[in-house]
């Protein structure tokens, strides 16, 4: 039991909380009273043109109306503007505000300015129309220009007669509207989103998902209703000032977005596909760096009109063999290099249904590893038949454990939930387990598939994809979205180790060996699924994909590529994922590898043997001075660059260095000044670490087969 002091302390705390709640309640009540009093005062006591607003509104059609707030901005991960609101203005004129003397003295000047700057009428026509409205008993307000003007144009017009607040003048009005501007458009248009022109609310993408934060709070001010239903602000002061919307800071990197869209657009155009999607995500955090969605819009043009990444679900095809293999390994602990199945000649019948492999003539006997690497449907079916046909619920429970039966929970509206059948479904049949094992009879979005591959890259820890990292009010951070990582892995470390090896094998030996890289290891899986059209899977119509991560030894990025219904050209054009989706992955990965030097590895062993013991390298003119000062063998004078190595005591061996070709030069032994000069003249982007002379370089000397133009130098 608690002591007497404990009981008294608890009682005191409770009383303190009750007192605080009462105080907050009274403060809110007082605030409400103050707002009410302010509105009464504004309406019945504050004056405009010598009358209270209530009196003025009786004579004139005045009312309190909401004044829209400026919408918040959307930023990329490097603080580049993705969307902002720019003010534009209609120029209007209340023809009956100015007194007669001022009007007669200034109308001609105003008409000339309108004619020379707007050009929609002559000076005489402007003057006649304004005078006609001034004399009219039913009309008084006139828009002087049909289109809106910019802020800079408005500042210029404010010096004109009737707009410059001269005594006894006035009448010039500016009706403010805000237009959304996206500096990088059309890049990431569907991801950033759009605004409904009528309501001013976000209706797609980030604009819709964070609409409440972005829209701000409207102000309140007096407006006058004039002909045509237009609302004209009365006076400059507002009763309640609008509060600007909050700024949204995303995880998108527009350099990555550009890489993804260029590679995707090129392949879509080449293959005449219906649509495509690329997502690039950071493995450790789930931060989405690029989300590209392009749809064919006639005549081979592709635009962002639908977010397939989040809302476009389909049968994933063979990329789903990854969770199937993980379930097999978790359940049986089998050695995938020893367990074998006979896939025969590439076609088998199962319960009246034909199961085929893509290779004509079949693969014959395969290990479980080879089944995965070569993407054998028959092999997966035989493994499922051997280990899971007697316990289908166990297989389904693994899919749930792998986060495949629920949405990812990304903070973006419109994510379509996955459809993974269980045995309670009316659509469950006696061959559902087989079809599901290699990615049919289900619906998943690209993002949901990528989340699993990302978890494998992250050593089994599932990470929620995220596309917004902060909400700010000016520079103040109001809400910070932290990465969400499951505290328990989705499977055992041994299973992760085995499937990682298999995913690398797909690229090295299997269905995607055409995208193998000399500089870094890609790990991933191809997927080619027949399209479901009018309830039937249709041969020749494919949903192709490649999902994976890189560099495989220390994964930093995961990525998925979708190409829908490629058509291709010529008899030899292959419609499968290895030839369609995988090359897009490779192009995006190559460009990211070249851009992000943190994932590049110095190529020590590729340096020529003659460079291993280099002591000095650089311009021959500089080396000549060094050799003279150190009493060494004189440096050569017949070459611009040279390198020196000591091969005997007191003896120096000089070797000419060629830096004129398009190849990557050998920089071993050079000072940073010389190395930087040579590389930048060749168009390379140079980064470095350390100080002293070059001892390692991320691109090996010789032909630049990769085309990468970023190089990391290690100095010592």
UniProtKB/TrEMBL annotation:
Subcellular localization: Membrane
Primary localisation category: membrane
Gene Ontology MF terms in the entry: carboxypeptidase activity; penicillin binding
Cellular component per GO, a single term: plasma membrane
InterPro entries to which the protein is assigned, alphabetical: Beta-lactam/transpept, Beta-lactam/transpept-like, PASTA_dom, PBP_dimer, PBP_dimer_sf, PCN-bd_Tpept
SMART domains: PASTA
Entry protein name: Transpeptidase family protein
């Amino acid at each position: 039991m608690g002591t007497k002091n404990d009981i008294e302390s608890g009682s005191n705390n409770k009383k303190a909380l009750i007192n605080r709640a009462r105080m907050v309640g009274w403060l809110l009540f007082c605030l409400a009273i103050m707002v009410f009093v302010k509105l009464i005062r504004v309406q019945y006591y504050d004056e405009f043109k010598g009358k209270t607003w209530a009196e003025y509104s009786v004579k004139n059609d005045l009312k309190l109306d909401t004044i829209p707030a400026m919408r918040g901005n959307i930023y990329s991960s490097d603080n580049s503007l993705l969307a902002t609101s720019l003010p534009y203005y209609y120029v209007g004129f209340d023809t009956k505000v100015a007194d007669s003397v001022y009007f007669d003295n200034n109308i001609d000047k105003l008409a000339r300015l309108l004619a020379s700057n707007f050009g929609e009428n002559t000076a005489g026509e402007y003057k006649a129309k304004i005078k006609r409205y001034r004399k009219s008993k039913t009309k008084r307000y006139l828009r002087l220009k049909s289109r809106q003007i910019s802020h800079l144009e408005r500042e210029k017009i404010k010096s004109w007669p009737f707009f410059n607040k001269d005594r006894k003048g006035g009448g010039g009005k500016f009706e403010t509207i805000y237009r959304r501007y996206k500096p990088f458009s059309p890049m990431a248009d569907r991801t950033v989103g759009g605004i409904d022109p009528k309501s001013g609310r976000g209706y797609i993408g980030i604009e819709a998902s964070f609409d409440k934060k972005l829209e701000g709070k409207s102000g309140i001010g007096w407006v006058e209703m004039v002909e045509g239903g237009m609302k004209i602000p009365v006076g400059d002061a507002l009763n309640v000032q609008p509060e600007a919307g909050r700024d949204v800071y995303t995880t998108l990197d527009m350099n990555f977005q550009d890489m993804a869209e260029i590679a995707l657009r090129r392949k879509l155009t080449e293959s005449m596909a219906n649509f495509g999607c690329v997502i690039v995500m950071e493995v450790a955090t789930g931060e989405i760096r690029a989300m590209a969605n392009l749809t064919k819009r006639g005549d081979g043009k592709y635009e962002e009109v639908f977010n397939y990444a989040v809302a476009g679900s389909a049968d994933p095809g063979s990329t789903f063999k990854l969770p199937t293999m993980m379930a097999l390994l978790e359940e049986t602990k089998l050695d995938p290099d020893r367990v074998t199945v006979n896939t025969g000649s590439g076609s088998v019948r199962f319960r009246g249904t034909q199961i085929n492999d893509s290779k004509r003539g079949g693969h014959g006997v395969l290990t479980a590893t080879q089944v995965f690497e070569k993407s054998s449907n028959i092999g997966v079916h035989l493994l499922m038949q051997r280990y899971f046909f007697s316990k289908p619920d166990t297989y389904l429970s693994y899919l749930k454990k792998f986060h495949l039966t629920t949405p990812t929970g990304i903070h973006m509206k419109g994510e379509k939930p996955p459809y993974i059948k269980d045995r309670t479904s009316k659509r469950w049949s006696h061959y559902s387990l087989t079809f599901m094992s290699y990615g049919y009879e289900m619906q998943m979005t690209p993002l949901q598939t990528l989340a699993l591959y990302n978890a494998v890259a992250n050593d089994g820890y599932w990470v929620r994809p995220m596309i917004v990292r902060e909400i700010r009010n000016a520079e103040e951070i109001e809400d910070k979205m932290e990465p969400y990582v499951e505290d328990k892995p989705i499977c055992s470390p041994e299973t992760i180790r085995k499937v990682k090896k298999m995913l690398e094998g797909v690229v090295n030996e299997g269905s995607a060996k055409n995208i193998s890289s000399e500089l870094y290891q890609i790990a991933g899986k191809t997927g080619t699924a027949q399209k479901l059209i009018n309830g039937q899977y249709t041969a020749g119509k494919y949903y192709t994909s490649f999902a994976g991560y890189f560099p495989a030894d220390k994964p930093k990025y995961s990525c998925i590529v979708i190409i829908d219904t490629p058509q291709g050209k010529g008899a030899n054009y292959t419609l499968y994922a290895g030839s369609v989706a995988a090359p897009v992955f490779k192009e995006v990965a190559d460009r990211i590898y070249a851009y992000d030097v943190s994932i590049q590895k110095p190529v020590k062993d590729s340096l020529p043997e003659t460079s291993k013991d280099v002591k000095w390298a650089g311009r021959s003119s500089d080396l000549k001075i060094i050799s003279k000062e150190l009493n060494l063998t004189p440096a050569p004078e017949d070459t611009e660059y040279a390198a020196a190595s000591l091969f005997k005591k007191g003896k120096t061996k000089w070797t000419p260095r060629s830096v004129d070709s398009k190849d990557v030069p050998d920089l071993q032994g050079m000072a940073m000044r010389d190395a930087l000069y040579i590389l930048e003249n060749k168009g390379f982007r140079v980064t470095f670490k350390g100080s002293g002379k070059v001892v390692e370089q991320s691109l090996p000397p010789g032909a630049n087969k990769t085309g990468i133009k970023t190089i990391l130098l290690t100095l010592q």
